Amino acid sequence: MQNAANSAVLVAGWHRMSYRFDDQSFISQELERLIRRLHASTGNAITEGRFILFGAGSTQLINAAVHALSPHNSSAPAKAWLQSLSSRFVPVPAFVSYSIFSFNEEYALEVNFYVWVYQQRTDFFRSVDFQFQGDTSLWKNNSDSTLNLIEVVTAPDNPDGQLNKAVLHGPYVKAIHDHAYYWPHFTAIPAPADEDLMIFTLSKLTGHAGTTFGWALIKDESVYQRRLKYKLLNVLGVSRDTQLRALKLLKLVLEGSGREIFKFSYTTMKNRREKLNNASSVSDRFSIQKIAPQYCTFFQTVRGNLLQLMLG
């Protein structure tokens, strides 16, 4: 246990009782500034010229993004996908369990999931603006260029760690880039992400999943305004107590050089990976997927990917 006292939050009973901050907004301006500093420090995303929107984790933010990108004045709903690497693997950020070993030296992951949260949400709310279509590869060669398409790109992917790129292209194609795991302790940072709509989450940065806090970086103001309206009509905004908790944690992350948490986390996960490698090396039935190392601008060295150790 490290930094227990420095990360503690004490809130008086009379404090933060209003929905809004003193400037009448629903977001902490100081927290927004810290998020911009964080991305500048890690070099994992460009924030200049972007609007920042808070949300209750990446799942809610992605749902709001699909709503904002859908054509509200069209009789044909947009079709939304999650990207997939192969017929065996469907990358979903939220699932119950998976096996990180492959069989017979195939270096492929077999995924067993029980909760496909994006499809369940789409089906449950029965939106007239969009429909969930599953695997991106099913529509990769679609010849109808007039379809409204929305692709969710997981980069890096969980659990295989691949830095995916958008597969679908066209005048009516939009992409949501889920960068929940694009942090230096999980993967090399070859360059800052620079897409139109990017999503990050506190749970994969510091491990505080119970805080359920995330944010989106949005280039287009009209998309930002539609997402903002979605948030206000849905839950009025993110809890001020949640924002205070996130603020405290990010202040601690950025103390000093702003590198300590990433050095500690990377070293811890690297040691676990070495133990896993040693255990699998004595088996003739199991192997671990190999991912080519890349140059990391944060650590300024060539390094491997440690995301395969994440279990959800």
From TrEMBL:
The cross-references to Gene3D superfamilies, in alphabetical order and at most eight, read: Aspartate Aminotransferase, domain 1, Type I PLP-dependent aspartate aminotransferase-like (Major domain)
Q: Which SUPFAM superfamilies match?
A: PLP-dependent transferases
Q: Which GO terms describe its biological process?
A: amino acid metabolic process
Please give the Pfam families that the UniProt record associates with this protein: Alliinase_C
The molecular function terms of the Gene Ontology recorded here are: carbon-sulfur lyase activity; transaminase activity
Q: Where is the Alliinase C-terminal domain?
A: 1-77, 114-303
Identify the keywords attached in UniProt to this record, alphabetized.
Answer: Pyridoxal phosphate
What InterPro entries does this protein's entry cite? Alliinase_C (IPR006948), Ethylene_sulfur-biosynth (IPR050478), PyrdxlP-dep_Trfase (IPR015424), PyrdxlP-dep_Trfase_major (IPR015421), PyrdxlP-dep_Trfase_small (IPR015422)
State the family named in the UniProt similarity comment for this chain. Answer: Belongs to the alliinase family.
What's the protein here called? Alliinase C-terminal domain-containing protein
Source organism per entry reads Vitis vinifera
Q: What is the lineage of its organism?
A: Eukaryota, Viridiplantae, Streptophyta, Embryophyta, Tracheophyta
